Amino acid sequence: MAKTNDMTNGSVPKMIFSFFIPMLMTNLLQQIYNFSDTAIVGKGLGDNALAAVGNMSSLTFLIIGFSMGMANGFAVIIAQNYGAKDIKALKSSFAASIKLALVISAFLTFISLFFLRRIMVLMQTSDVIIEDSLRYGYIIFGGLTATIAYNMSACILRALGDSRTPFTAIIVSSIINIILDCVCIFGLHTGVEGAAAATIFATFFSAGVCFRRISKIEELSLKGHNVKPDRNMYLLLLKNGLPMALMNSITAVGCIVVQYFVNGLGVAYTSAYSACSRYLNMFMLPGVTAGYTMSAFAGQNFGARKYDRIREGMKVCVLIALTAYVILGSVMILLPRQLASVMLNGEETISLAAMFLPVCGVMIFAVDLLFVFRNCVQGMGFPMVPMISGILEMVLRISVIVLLISGLGFRATALAEVSAWTGALLMNMTAYFVYIRKFSPSKKTAVLGLSR
User: Fold this and answer.
1) Would the pLDDT of 20 be above 70?
2) Rounded Cα–Cα distance for residues 333 and 238 (Å)
Protein backbone atom coordinates (compact mmCIF):
# COMPACT_ATOMS: atom_id res chain seq x y z
CA MET A 1 0.00 0.00 0.00
CA ALA A 2 1.16 3.54 -0.78
CA LYS A 3 2.03 5.92 2.02
CA THR A 4 0.47 9.28 2.77
CA ASN A 5 2.18 12.40 4.10
CA ASP A 6 1.28 13.51 7.62
CA MET A 7 1.83 17.30 7.74
CA THR A 8 0.92 17.66 11.42
CA ASN A 9 4.40 16.76 12.67
CA GLY A 10 7.98 17.69 11.80
CA SER A 11 9.66 20.85 10.55
CA VAL A 12 7.10 23.28 9.12
CA PRO A 13 9.37 24.79 6.43
CA LYS A 14 10.49 21.32 5.37
CA MET A 15 6.89 20.13 5.14
CA ILE A 16 5.83 23.22 3.21
CA PHE A 17 8.65 23.04 0.67
CA SER A 18 8.45 19.25 0.21
CA PHE A 19 4.79 19.75 -0.76
CA PHE A 20 5.19 23.08 -2.55
CA ILE A 21 7.99 22.19 -4.97
CA PRO A 22 6.37 19.16 -6.68
CA MET A 23 3.09 21.04 -6.82
CA LEU A 24 4.78 24.10 -8.30
CA MET A 25 6.31 21.89 -10.96
CA THR A 26 2.86 20.40 -11.59
CA ASN A 27 1.25 23.81 -12.01
CA LEU A 28 4.19 25.06 -14.04
CA LEU A 29 3.87 22.16 -16.45
CA GLN A 30 0.15 22.84 -16.77
CA GLN A 31 0.82 26.47 -17.60
CA ILE A 32 3.66 25.56 -19.96
CA TYR A 33 1.20 23.35 -21.76
CA ASN A 34 -1.44 26.11 -21.79
CA PHE A 35 1.21 28.55 -22.99
CA SER A 36 2.43 26.11 -25.64
CA ASP A 37 -1.14 25.39 -26.69
CA THR A 38 -1.80 29.12 -27.08
CA ALA A 39 1.45 29.70 -28.96
CA ILE A 40 0.77 26.73 -31.27
CA VAL A 41 -2.76 27.96 -31.97
CA GLY A 42 -1.61 31.58 -32.42
CA LYS A 43 1.38 30.84 -34.61
CA GLY A 44 -0.17 27.89 -36.43
CA LEU A 45 -3.69 29.22 -37.02
CA GLY A 46 -3.36 32.98 -36.56
CA ASP A 47 -4.54 35.69 -34.17
CA ASN A 48 -8.23 35.09 -34.94
CA ALA A 49 -7.96 31.45 -33.88
CA LEU A 50 -6.14 32.57 -30.74
CA ALA A 51 -8.96 35.02 -30.07
CA ALA A 52 -11.52 32.22 -30.49
CA VAL A 53 -9.75 30.01 -27.96
CA GLY A 54 -9.09 32.90 -25.58
CA ASN A 55 -12.71 33.97 -25.83
CA MET A 56 -13.61 30.69 -24.11
CA SER A 57 -11.30 31.20 -21.15
CA SER A 58 -13.68 33.10 -18.88
CA LEU A 59 -16.55 30.72 -19.64
CA THR A 60 -14.25 27.74 -19.07
CA PHE A 61 -13.30 29.23 -15.72
CA LEU A 62 -17.01 29.59 -14.89
CA ILE A 63 -17.77 25.90 -15.48
CA ILE A 64 -14.51 24.17 -14.62
CA GLY A 65 -13.86 26.64 -11.79
CA PHE A 66 -17.15 25.58 -10.21
CA SER A 67 -16.12 21.93 -10.26
CA MET A 68 -12.64 22.78 -8.96
CA GLY A 69 -14.17 24.73 -6.09
CA MET A 70 -16.30 21.74 -5.16
CA ALA A 71 -13.29 19.42 -5.35
CA ASN A 72 -11.18 21.72 -3.17
CA GLY A 73 -14.03 22.01 -0.67
CA PHE A 74 -14.43 18.25 -0.45
CA ALA A 75 -10.65 17.89 -0.06
CA VAL A 76 -10.67 20.20 2.98
CA ILE A 77 -12.96 17.77 4.82
CA ILE A 78 -10.77 14.85 3.74
CA ALA A 79 -7.64 16.67 4.97
CA GLN A 80 -9.24 17.50 8.32
CA ASN A 81 -10.35 13.89 8.84
CA TYR A 82 -6.86 12.69 7.95
CA GLY A 83 -5.25 15.20 10.31
CA ALA A 84 -7.61 14.11 13.10
CA LYS A 85 -6.69 10.43 12.36
CA ASP A 86 -10.40 9.59 12.00
CA ILE A 87 -10.10 6.81 9.40
CA LYS A 88 -13.80 5.94 9.41
CA ALA A 89 -14.76 9.53 8.62
CA LEU A 90 -11.92 9.71 6.08
CA LYS A 91 -13.26 6.72 4.14
CA SER A 92 -16.80 8.06 4.35
CA SER A 93 -15.82 11.53 3.08
CA PHE A 94 -13.79 9.96 0.27
CA ALA A 95 -16.64 7.72 -0.90
CA ALA A 96 -19.16 10.56 -0.72
CA SER A 97 -16.84 12.90 -2.63
CA ILE A 98 -16.54 10.48 -5.55
CA LYS A 99 -20.31 10.02 -5.78
CA LEU A 100 -20.96 13.75 -5.66
CA ALA A 101 -18.27 14.38 -8.28
CA LEU A 102 -20.03 12.02 -10.72
CA VAL A 103 -23.35 13.82 -10.26
CA ILE A 104 -21.72 17.24 -10.66
CA SER A 105 -19.90 16.08 -13.81
CA ALA A 106 -23.13 14.98 -15.50
CA PHE A 107 -24.96 18.16 -14.52
CA LEU A 108 -22.24 20.59 -15.64
CA THR A 109 -21.71 18.78 -18.94
CA PHE A 110 -25.39 19.07 -19.83
CA ILE A 111 -25.71 22.72 -18.76
CA SER A 112 -22.56 23.91 -20.53
CA LEU A 113 -23.33 22.18 -23.83
CA PHE A 114 -26.97 23.31 -23.85
CA PHE A 115 -26.27 26.99 -23.20
CA LEU A 116 -22.92 27.43 -24.96
CA ARG A 117 -24.12 29.16 -28.13
CA ARG A 118 -26.48 31.44 -26.21
CA ILE A 119 -23.70 32.57 -23.91
CA MET A 120 -21.31 33.17 -26.80
CA VAL A 121 -23.86 35.52 -28.37
CA LEU A 122 -24.48 37.32 -25.07
CA MET A 123 -20.71 37.88 -24.74
CA GLN A 124 -20.69 39.86 -28.00
CA THR A 125 -18.47 37.24 -29.63
CA SER A 126 -17.48 38.49 -33.07
CA ASP A 127 -18.91 36.69 -36.10
CA VAL A 128 -15.32 36.24 -37.23
CA ILE A 129 -14.48 33.91 -34.35
CA ILE A 130 -17.78 32.56 -32.98
CA GLU A 131 -17.78 29.29 -34.94
CA ASP A 132 -14.22 28.48 -33.89
CA SER A 133 -15.12 29.32 -30.29
CA LEU A 134 -18.09 26.96 -30.43
CA ARG A 135 -16.12 24.10 -32.00
CA TYR A 136 -13.49 24.46 -29.30
CA GLY A 137 -16.04 24.82 -26.50
CA TYR A 138 -18.22 21.84 -27.42
CA ILE A 139 -15.22 19.51 -27.21
CA ILE A 140 -13.83 21.00 -23.99
CA PHE A 141 -17.19 20.90 -22.21
CA GLY A 142 -18.11 17.55 -23.72
CA GLY A 143 -15.00 16.16 -22.01
CA LEU A 144 -15.70 17.67 -18.59
CA THR A 145 -15.77 14.21 -17.00
CA ALA A 146 -12.05 13.84 -17.66
CA THR A 147 -11.27 17.29 -16.26
CA ILE A 148 -13.36 16.77 -13.11
CA ALA A 149 -11.89 13.29 -12.59
CA TYR A 150 -8.37 14.70 -12.63
CA ASN A 151 -9.18 17.69 -10.42
CA MET A 152 -11.02 15.55 -7.86
CA SER A 153 -8.33 12.86 -7.68
CA ALA A 154 -5.51 15.44 -7.50
CA CYS A 155 -7.28 17.33 -4.69
CA ILE A 156 -7.76 14.11 -2.71
CA LEU A 157 -4.08 13.24 -3.03
CA ARG A 158 -3.00 16.73 -1.98
CA ALA A 159 -5.32 16.57 1.03
CA LEU A 160 -3.30 13.56 2.14
CA GLY A 161 -0.03 15.39 1.56
CA ASP A 162 0.84 13.85 -1.82
CA SER A 163 1.78 16.50 -4.37
CA ARG A 164 4.16 14.24 -6.29
CA THR A 165 1.64 11.99 -8.03
CA PRO A 166 -0.25 14.91 -9.64
CA PHE A 167 3.18 16.11 -10.83
CA THR A 168 3.83 12.74 -12.49
CA ALA A 169 0.36 12.83 -14.02
CA ILE A 170 0.92 16.26 -15.52
CA ILE A 171 4.29 15.25 -16.98
CA VAL A 172 2.57 12.46 -18.88
CA SER A 173 -0.40 14.66 -19.80
CA SER A 174 1.72 17.59 -21.01
CA ILE A 175 3.89 15.46 -23.26
CA ILE A 176 0.85 13.81 -24.83
CA ASN A 177 -0.91 17.16 -25.13
CA ILE A 178 1.84 19.05 -26.91
CA ILE A 179 2.58 16.18 -29.30
CA LEU A 180 -1.09 15.85 -30.21
CA ASP A 181 -1.42 19.62 -30.60
CA CYS A 182 1.38 19.70 -33.15
CA VAL A 183 0.08 16.63 -34.99
CA CYS A 184 -3.50 17.94 -35.14
CA ILE A 185 -2.74 21.57 -36.07
CA PHE A 186 0.38 21.32 -38.22
CA GLY A 187 -0.03 17.77 -39.50
CA LEU A 188 -3.76 17.14 -39.85
CA HIS A 189 -4.78 20.83 -40.11
CA THR A 190 -7.77 20.24 -37.85
CA GLY A 191 -8.10 23.80 -36.56
CA VAL A 192 -8.96 24.74 -32.97
CA GLU A 193 -10.99 21.57 -32.43
CA GLY A 194 -7.78 19.56 -32.70
CA ALA A 195 -6.28 21.49 -29.78
CA ALA A 196 -9.42 20.89 -27.71
CA ALA A 197 -9.48 17.15 -28.46
CA ALA A 198 -5.80 16.85 -27.56
CA THR A 199 -6.48 18.51 -24.20
CA ILE A 200 -9.30 16.14 -23.28
CA PHE A 201 -7.44 13.04 -24.47
CA ALA A 202 -4.38 13.93 -22.37
CA THR A 203 -6.50 14.79 -19.33
CA PHE A 204 -7.89 11.26 -19.26
CA PHE A 205 -4.33 9.97 -18.89
CA SER A 206 -3.55 12.32 -15.99
CA ALA A 207 -6.74 11.27 -14.20
CA GLY A 208 -5.79 7.62 -14.66
CA VAL A 209 -2.37 8.16 -13.07
CA CYS A 210 -3.95 9.80 -10.01
CA PHE A 211 -6.65 7.16 -9.57
CA ARG A 212 -4.06 4.40 -9.80
CA ARG A 213 -2.21 6.00 -6.87
CA ILE A 214 -5.42 6.45 -4.87
CA SER A 215 -6.25 2.75 -5.31
CA LYS A 216 -3.03 1.90 -3.43
CA ILE A 217 -3.65 4.11 -0.38
CA GLU A 218 -4.78 1.94 2.53
CA GLU A 219 -6.56 4.76 4.34
CA LEU A 220 -8.82 5.26 1.30
CA SER A 221 -9.42 1.58 0.53
CA LEU A 222 -13.12 0.70 0.59
CA LYS A 223 -12.62 -3.03 -0.01
CA GLY A 224 -14.00 -5.08 2.86
CA HIS A 225 -15.47 -1.97 4.48
CA ASN A 226 -19.18 -1.30 4.60
CA VAL A 227 -18.82 2.41 3.94
CA LYS A 228 -22.14 4.05 3.24
CA PRO A 229 -21.88 7.83 3.67
CA ASP A 230 -24.89 9.14 5.53
CA ARG A 231 -26.90 12.25 4.76
CA ASN A 232 -24.83 14.33 7.21
CA MET A 233 -21.60 13.55 5.35
CA TYR A 234 -23.06 14.64 2.02
CA LEU A 235 -24.38 17.81 3.62
CA LEU A 236 -21.01 18.52 5.26
CA LEU A 237 -19.19 18.15 1.94
CA LEU A 238 -21.69 20.34 0.13
CA LYS A 239 -21.64 22.90 2.94
CA ASN A 240 -17.90 23.25 2.44
CA GLY A 241 -17.68 22.68 -1.30
CA LEU A 242 -20.59 24.73 -2.58
CA PRO A 243 -19.39 28.12 -1.24
CA MET A 244 -15.95 27.50 -2.77
CA ALA A 245 -17.54 26.49 -6.07
CA LEU A 246 -19.75 29.56 -6.06
CA MET A 247 -16.75 31.74 -5.24
CA ASN A 248 -15.00 30.58 -8.41
CA SER A 249 -18.12 30.94 -10.53
CA ILE A 250 -19.00 34.36 -9.16
CA THR A 251 -15.45 35.51 -9.87
CA ALA A 252 -15.78 34.07 -13.37
CA VAL A 253 -18.96 36.08 -13.96
CA GLY A 254 -16.90 39.24 -13.41
CA CYS A 255 -14.35 37.95 -15.92
CA ILE A 256 -17.10 37.21 -18.45
CA VAL A 257 -18.36 40.78 -18.14
CA VAL A 258 -14.84 42.08 -18.75
CA GLN A 259 -14.59 39.74 -21.74
CA TYR A 260 -17.88 41.18 -23.01
CA PHE A 261 -16.46 44.71 -23.03
CA VAL A 262 -13.15 43.54 -24.54
CA ASN A 263 -15.00 41.73 -27.34
CA GLY A 264 -16.90 44.93 -28.02
CA LEU A 265 -13.63 46.71 -28.77
CA GLY A 266 -12.69 44.33 -31.60
CA VAL A 267 -10.92 41.06 -32.39
CA ALA A 268 -7.44 42.57 -31.87
CA TYR A 269 -8.37 43.41 -28.28
CA THR A 270 -9.74 39.90 -27.72
CA SER A 271 -6.46 38.41 -28.96
CA ALA A 272 -4.37 40.72 -26.75
CA TYR A 273 -6.53 39.99 -23.71
CA SER A 274 -6.20 36.26 -24.33
CA ALA A 275 -2.40 36.46 -24.42
CA CYS A 276 -2.30 38.65 -21.29
CA SER A 277 -4.56 36.23 -19.43
CA ARG A 278 -2.18 33.38 -20.25
CA TYR A 279 0.74 35.34 -18.82
CA LEU A 280 -1.18 36.27 -15.68
CA ASN A 281 -2.05 32.61 -15.11
CA MET A 282 1.59 31.66 -15.51
CA PHE A 283 3.05 34.41 -13.32
CA MET A 284 0.50 33.75 -10.57
CA LEU A 285 1.74 30.17 -10.28
CA PRO A 286 3.94 30.53 -7.18
CA GLY A 287 1.14 32.33 -5.34
CA VAL A 288 -1.47 29.81 -6.49
CA THR A 289 0.77 26.93 -5.45
CA ALA A 290 1.57 28.47 -2.08
CA GLY A 291 -2.18 28.85 -1.60
CA TYR A 292 -2.95 25.20 -2.37
CA THR A 293 -0.07 24.18 -0.14
CA MET A 294 -1.51 26.28 2.66
CA SER A 295 -4.95 24.73 2.15
CA ALA A 296 -3.68 21.17 2.62
CA PHE A 297 -1.36 22.18 5.46
CA ALA A 298 -4.04 24.18 7.28
CA GLY A 299 -6.63 21.45 6.73
CA GLN A 300 -4.54 18.70 8.32
CA ASN A 301 -3.32 20.86 11.20
CA PHE A 302 -6.74 22.33 11.88
CA GLY A 303 -8.08 18.79 12.12
CA ALA A 304 -5.24 17.99 14.52
CA ARG A 305 -5.89 21.26 16.42
CA LYS A 306 -2.31 22.40 15.92
CA TYR A 307 -3.08 26.05 15.25
CA ASP A 308 0.44 27.36 15.91
CA ARG A 309 1.68 25.24 13.00
CA ILE A 310 -0.85 26.99 10.78
CA ARG A 311 0.73 30.32 11.78
CA GLU A 312 4.20 29.03 10.97
CA GLY A 313 3.05 27.65 7.64
CA MET A 314 1.45 30.98 6.76
CA LYS A 315 4.73 32.78 7.37
CA VAL A 316 6.56 30.47 4.96
CA CYS A 317 3.90 30.70 2.24
CA VAL A 318 3.71 34.50 2.42
CA LEU A 319 7.48 34.65 2.00
CA ILE A 320 7.22 32.42 -1.08
CA ALA A 321 4.52 34.64 -2.58
CA LEU A 322 6.44 37.87 -2.01
CA THR A 323 9.67 36.45 -3.41
CA ALA A 324 7.81 35.38 -6.56
CA TYR A 325 6.32 38.85 -6.87
CA VAL A 326 9.72 40.56 -6.86
CA ILE A 327 11.00 38.30 -9.63
CA LEU A 328 7.98 37.82 -11.89
CA GLY A 329 6.45 41.24 -11.34
CA SER A 330 9.71 42.75 -12.54
CA VAL A 331 9.59 40.70 -15.74
CA MET A 332 6.06 41.93 -16.50
CA ILE A 333 7.08 45.54 -15.88
CA LEU A 334 10.38 45.51 -17.77
CA LEU A 335 9.71 43.15 -20.71
CA PRO A 336 6.06 43.53 -21.76
CA ARG A 337 6.62 43.78 -25.52
CA GLN A 338 8.97 40.82 -25.55
CA LEU A 339 6.41 38.73 -23.67
CA ALA A 340 3.58 39.77 -25.99
CA SER A 341 5.61 39.00 -29.12
CA VAL A 342 5.97 35.34 -28.15
CA MET A 343 2.25 34.64 -28.67
CA LEU A 344 1.01 37.48 -30.87
CA ASN A 345 1.78 38.46 -34.45
CA GLY A 346 0.19 41.85 -35.21
CA GLU A 347 1.74 45.13 -34.05
CA GLU A 348 -1.60 46.38 -32.74
CA THR A 349 -2.21 43.32 -30.56
CA ILE A 350 1.37 43.38 -29.25
CA SER A 351 1.06 47.06 -28.31
CA LEU A 352 -2.21 46.42 -26.49
CA ALA A 353 -0.72 43.55 -24.48
CA ALA A 354 2.36 45.66 -23.69
CA MET A 355 0.00 48.25 -22.19
CA PHE A 356 -1.77 45.70 -19.98
CA LEU A 357 1.13 43.68 -18.55
CA PRO A 358 3.09 46.37 -16.62
CA VAL A 359 -0.03 47.59 -14.78
CA CYS A 360 -0.75 44.08 -13.51
CA GLY A 361 2.95 43.46 -12.88
CA VAL A 362 3.11 46.27 -10.33
CA MET A 363 0.21 44.82 -8.32
CA ILE A 364 0.49 41.08 -8.87
CA PHE A 365 1.63 40.69 -5.25
CA ALA A 366 -2.02 41.29 -4.28
CA VAL A 367 -3.30 38.22 -6.10
CA ASP A 368 -0.32 36.12 -4.89
CA LEU A 369 -1.13 36.93 -1.27
CA LEU A 370 -4.86 36.56 -1.95
CA PHE A 371 -4.36 32.90 -2.87
CA VAL A 372 -2.38 32.24 0.31
CA PHE A 373 -4.80 33.90 2.74
CA ARG A 374 -7.96 32.68 1.01
CA ASN A 375 -6.82 29.07 0.83
CA CYS A 376 -5.74 29.11 4.45
CA VAL A 377 -9.19 30.32 5.54
CA GLN A 378 -10.77 27.62 3.37
CA GLY A 379 -8.42 24.96 4.73
CA MET A 380 -9.48 25.84 8.25
CA GLY A 381 -13.05 25.09 7.21
CA PHE A 382 -14.51 28.59 6.81
CA PRO A 383 -15.59 28.87 3.16
CA MET A 384 -18.16 31.68 3.50
CA VAL A 385 -15.69 34.60 3.69
CA PRO A 386 -13.84 33.46 0.55
CA MET A 387 -17.21 33.14 -1.20
CA ILE A 388 -18.20 36.67 -0.18
CA SER A 389 -14.81 37.88 -1.35
CA GLY A 390 -15.63 36.33 -4.72
CA ILE A 391 -18.73 38.51 -4.86
CA LEU A 392 -16.57 41.52 -4.00
CA GLU A 393 -14.15 40.59 -6.81
CA MET A 394 -17.04 40.43 -9.25
CA VAL A 395 -18.47 43.76 -8.15
CA LEU A 396 -15.10 45.51 -8.35
CA ARG A 397 -14.26 44.07 -11.78
CA ILE A 398 -17.59 45.04 -13.25
CA SER A 399 -17.64 48.49 -11.63
CA VAL A 400 -14.17 49.42 -12.83
CA ILE A 401 -14.65 48.16 -16.38
CA VAL A 402 -18.04 49.88 -16.73
CA LEU A 403 -16.80 53.19 -15.33
CA LEU A 404 -13.42 53.36 -17.04
CA ILE A 405 -13.64 51.50 -20.36
CA SER A 406 -14.94 54.51 -22.30
CA GLY A 407 -12.18 56.80 -21.04
CA LEU A 408 -9.19 54.47 -20.69
CA GLY A 409 -9.99 51.78 -23.24
CA PHE A 410 -8.04 48.54 -22.93
CA ARG A 411 -6.05 49.81 -19.92
CA ALA A 412 -9.29 49.62 -17.91
CA THR A 413 -9.16 45.81 -18.11
CA ALA A 414 -5.87 45.78 -16.20
CA LEU A 415 -7.23 48.18 -13.58
CA ALA A 416 -10.30 45.96 -13.19
CA GLU A 417 -8.04 43.00 -12.36
CA VAL A 418 -5.94 44.97 -9.89
CA SER A 419 -8.94 46.38 -8.03
CA ALA A 420 -10.56 42.93 -7.73
CA TRP A 421 -7.36 41.38 -6.34
CA THR A 422 -6.84 44.13 -3.79
CA GLY A 423 -10.39 44.14 -2.42
CA ALA A 424 -10.54 40.35 -2.06
CA LEU A 425 -7.09 40.25 -0.43
CA LEU A 426 -8.07 42.73 2.28
CA MET A 427 -11.21 40.74 3.12
CA ASN A 428 -9.47 37.35 3.33
CA MET A 429 -6.48 38.73 5.23
CA THR A 430 -8.82 40.18 7.84
CA ALA A 431 -10.69 36.87 8.10
CA TYR A 432 -7.46 34.94 8.61
CA PHE A 433 -6.38 37.08 11.55
CA VAL A 434 -9.84 36.90 13.12
CA TYR A 435 -10.04 33.11 12.89
CA ILE A 436 -6.46 32.35 13.91
CA ARG A 437 -6.76 34.53 16.98
CA LYS A 438 -10.06 32.88 17.85
CA PHE A 439 -8.44 29.46 17.93
CA SER A 440 -5.10 30.61 19.39
CA PRO A 441 -6.13 33.20 21.98
CA SER A 442 -2.77 33.03 23.70
CA LYS A 443 -1.12 34.45 20.58
CA LYS A 444 -3.34 37.47 19.99
CA THR A 445 -0.46 39.70 19.12
CA ALA A 446 1.12 37.31 16.69
CA VAL A 447 1.40 38.25 13.03
CA LEU A 448 2.17 35.53 10.46
CA GLY A 449 3.65 33.35 13.16
CA LEU A 450 5.74 36.02 14.94
CA SER A 451 4.87 37.28 18.44
CA ARG A 452 5.71 40.68 19.75
Assistant:
1) yes
2) 41
